[in-house]
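Appendix C: a fully annotated inverse folding record. The material below is reproduced so that readers can follow the format used throughout the book. The structure is listed first as tokens, followed by the designed sequence.
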């Protein structure tokens, strides 16, 4: 990224100043940049102490200039939201200019900084995110932790609905600038996330609770350090960072709505741990069923097929609930820095009942005009969705300029649903009544180890390496659906269709192992300043 104001211009302005020439003072110039992004930090206070004292404030481009008599000085740099830095033994000669540029580390870092260092993520304050968005080399939008906390959204998908040009469709799929989910991608802590969907490459973002997220960034244009798997937008999520002081936050919430709370609801007998989103094995495929063979007449005798059918439990119909409970949510966040070590952990859980009512019509082109082929007027889906999320991150400062981080993120989602609909079906030219019982369990686990290594002797160069392992699973055990047709007397009887009396079992597993390494260094050469970054 190039900065509009140039360090060379500051040097030239100092050399042409008449007062400067007459006093034969020396000049200290420099730029103050953010440690990870290389973005300038405006408003930073720079204080010089030694044989004389002077102060300055960085401008909008992060540049400062101070004229002082010849001598040896200590330059201290401070800015709100960042660790302070002191540059010692800055030698100033008469009539000459010395450079004293540095980078600042956000207060989310684990240790106090006594030397020039860049080994931490950006602190997610609203102001910092706005400055980064303004100075970013790509078109982007962002949400800080402050904005996420103020929002009523419970997950990343809901939070992104507040971003201009972003819409969320279906089960947490992000549309950026009107382009479908296939044109978007998602990252967690700089690594690509595996998916839980069997027919989509994208990740449903309703899996990630907002209380576990430090900030969200949506990049709408491409840059060389981003994966080339998107053309609409890239959603970058960062989990909560290490607090500067020990914290412990606990919260309990409850939610009510007129559509479901204390109203009639449909469910069905499941497992003992359904409330927490875990199937206890009661929906597993019976052990009597061959797992590696197709079941059809001819391969097995009629008696064997009958025995297979009797191995399943007889539970095809939903159970009414006269009064459904309110939504509940719990969360806890704890962490702090302890000497060279930093720890932060978070746990969040919520279970919310939903009721969706709709009318579905399917239209076909007739001989003269479009006609209704099928129409289901009473289409209702009753869902109880349990979400569990956990983060545990640890950091150790091996030396002042060398940091190792361990990150672990787990999200789980268990969805128990009952679907009913009735109406005219053009496929069989009859009124039908359908009932479906479904359980879907999704999990995302992301673990990474990464290192940040700063080298002040190499122009404040920073080496960042990371290895991330992502695992996603999806289980859909024992989906049951039965369709009944309507007789002339108004009664419904079983209809022998391919989609009726179905019991479906499905599993999916997706893994990604992703190594990364980057080297970045700020530069101030002639009329050009910025950040050089390379890696793979």
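Designed amino acids, in order:
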């Amino acid at each position: 990224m190039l900065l509009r104001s140039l360090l060379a211009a500051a040097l030239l302005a100092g050399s042409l100043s008449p007062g400067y020439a007459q006093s034969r003072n020396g000049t200290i110039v420099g730029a103050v940049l953010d440690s990870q992004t290389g973005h300038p930090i405006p408003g930073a206070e720079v204080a010089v102490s030694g044989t004389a004292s002077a102060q300055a404030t960085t401008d909008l481009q992060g540049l400062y200039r101070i004229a002082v008599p010849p001598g040896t000085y200590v330059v201290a740099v401070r800015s709100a939201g960042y660790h302070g830095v002191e540059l010692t033994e800055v030698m100033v000669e008469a009539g000459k200019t010395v450079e004293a540029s540095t980078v600042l580390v956000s207060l989310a870092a684990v240790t106090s900084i006594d030397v020039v260092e860049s080994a931490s993520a950006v602190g997610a304050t609203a102001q910092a995110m706005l400055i980064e968005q303004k100075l970013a080399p790509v078109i982007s939008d962002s949400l800080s932790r402050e904005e996420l906390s103020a929002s009523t959204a419970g997950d990343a998908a809901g939070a992104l609905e507040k971003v201009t040009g972003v819409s969320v469709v279906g089960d947490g799929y992000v549309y950026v600038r009107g382009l479908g989910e296939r044109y978007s991608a998602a990252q967690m802590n700089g690594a690509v996330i595996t998916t839980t969907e069997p027919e989509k490459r994208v990740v449903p973002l309703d899996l990630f609770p907002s209380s576990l997220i430090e900030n969200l960034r949506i990049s709408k244009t491409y840059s060389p350090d981003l994966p080339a798997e998107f053309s609409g937008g890239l959603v970058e999520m960062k989990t909560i960072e290490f607090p500067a002081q020990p914290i412990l936050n606990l919260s309990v919430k409850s939610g009510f709505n007129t559509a479901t709370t204390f109203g009639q609801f449909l469910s069905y007998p499941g497992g003992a741990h359904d409330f927490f989103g875990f199937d206890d094995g009661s929906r597993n495929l019976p052990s009597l069923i061959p797992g590696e063979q197709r079941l059809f007449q001819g391969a097995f005798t009629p008696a064997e097929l009958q025995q297979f059918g009797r191995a399943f439990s007889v539970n095809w119909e939903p159970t009414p609930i006269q009064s459904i409970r309110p939504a509940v949510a719990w969360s806890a966040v704890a962490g702090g820095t302890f000497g060279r070590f930093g720890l932060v952990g978070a746990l969040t859980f919520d279970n919310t009942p939903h009721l969706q009512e709709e009318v579905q019509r399917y239209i076909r082109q007739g001989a003269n005009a479009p006609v209704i082929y099928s129409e289901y007027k009473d289409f209702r889906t009753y869902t109880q969705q349990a979400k569990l999320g956990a983060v545990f991150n640890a950091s150790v400062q091996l030396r002042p300029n060398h940091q190792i981080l361990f990150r672990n993120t787990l999200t789980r989602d268990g969805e128990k649903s009952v679907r009913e609909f009735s109406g005219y079906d053009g496929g069989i030219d009859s009124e039908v009544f359908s009932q479906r019982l479904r359980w879907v369990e999704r999990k995302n686990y992301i673990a990474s180890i990464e290192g940040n290594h700063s080298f002040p002797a190499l122009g404040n160069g920073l080496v960042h390496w990371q290895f991330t392992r992502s695992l996603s699973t999806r289980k859909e055990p024992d989906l049951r659906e039965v369709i009944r047709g309507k007789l002339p007397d108004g009664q419904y009887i079983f209809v022998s269709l391919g989609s009726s009396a179905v019991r479906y079992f499905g599993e999916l597993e997706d893994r990604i192992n992703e190594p990364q390494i980057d080297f970045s260094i700020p530069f101030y050469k002639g009329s050009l300043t910025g950040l050089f970054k390379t890696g793979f």
